[in-house]
Design a protein that fits this description.
The protein is mostly beta strands and about 425 residues long. Helices cover about 10% and strands about 50% of the residues. The strands form five sheets. Strands 13, 14, 17, 18, 19, 20, 21, 22, 23 and 24 form a ten-stranded mixed beta sheet that branches. The longest helix has 16 residues. The N terminus is likely disordered.
Length: about 425
Amino acid sequence: MFLFVVKLIAVDHFFCNFATNSMQKLLNMKKIVLLCSFLALANVVSARTVKLTMSDYFTTDASNSTFVVSDTDKGITLTAGKGTYGAKSGYFANGGDVRVQFGATLKVTTTDPHITQIEFILSSQGKERLPELQVDNGVAQVTNDPDYTAMWDGNAQTVTFTVGNNSYGSKSKEKGQLCFTAIRIVTDGSGADDDDTPDLTKEYPLTQGRAFYWGTSSGCSNFSVELYSDGIYFGTVDGEETIEGTGTYATFDIFSDNQHSFIGAYSTTVGTDKVGGLAAGGISQWHVCGRGDCASDYIVSGSLSVGCTPSGKYNFVYDVVDGAGNKHQGQALGIALQAFTENGDSYTLSNVCTDADVDALSPVEMAATVYAIDGQIVVNQSVASDVAVYDLLGRCVARYAACTQTVVPMARGIYVVQSGAGVAKVVVR
């Protein structure tokens, strides 16, 4: 602290001139020194954190020898060149993470006065081939298993990293690579922070999926259906699959009476290992991921309805609660699913809609139960239960509790209605 204050005094000789032997002058300068210290603290306190998620800037253009990611709103530019043997730095095929080759440089620049800290959110590939990092200023620190981190601290407007040949990850015999899904940068600029802390109260759209079939000793057919956001990716570290990126990753364990289909409506009230059941209390899970980690909890109650489309895709409507009491409610429409066995082999699903299928999002309205007329949606139920109406973006636009007849005025459009009678798609004209 003393050296810090002296440095400020020396720089600003007009206000902080200490070159005197006079005790009186030194005493008179107390207020000025305090003012300098106060201004210095003000500069230290001013900081903002920005995050660049690599999938947001994905491009398939491989014609350039230089890889560039630039975000003018955040004032950050990343520039990476070719590696030692001419290998180009850039995106992996999945568009989720970036690879900077060994021998290549990565330059990080801000439009703010200074960068004070950089953190790379490493992908699974990055953990396997975690490299040594050299920098032109400041201090870079790399730690391997179990933390797997790559950090920089300093005070500069531009920082240039050079990726070393040696790998400190699980594949230490291979050349190093700096592979990351995101980069978090702290500057001394002003503005709101980017907050990507994993939090189960955050909701991200579910846009992709896959399914696994597991046989059960009870004679039921157990499927694990996984839905996840665009920002979620899967990697492998030491043979174990990892979840990477930012977004929601939900797993629904379904017990169906058909070994090749899980179209239908499922509830956790049926219980685990029962036909028609959505397994809870230790099987079905909800994850929200970010910052290289995930907040996770089991689904303890709720329901899931699954339907299909003539094109062979799936529609999902979910209304579940996790162990922390967070409610997750919405829909995922037109999801293309790949199916596998528990051993990873391909598995065939019979997802062609027929009249015999229970289609959770049938284009045919349920006559006399859920229908639209004169700009309204009408729901009739023999037993009072909750009613929820969603638009095609998955947003809940209306909700009513414990009612037998509900009349919902709505604008023209297509809506999904979830009630005790089931789930239906209605068209308001």
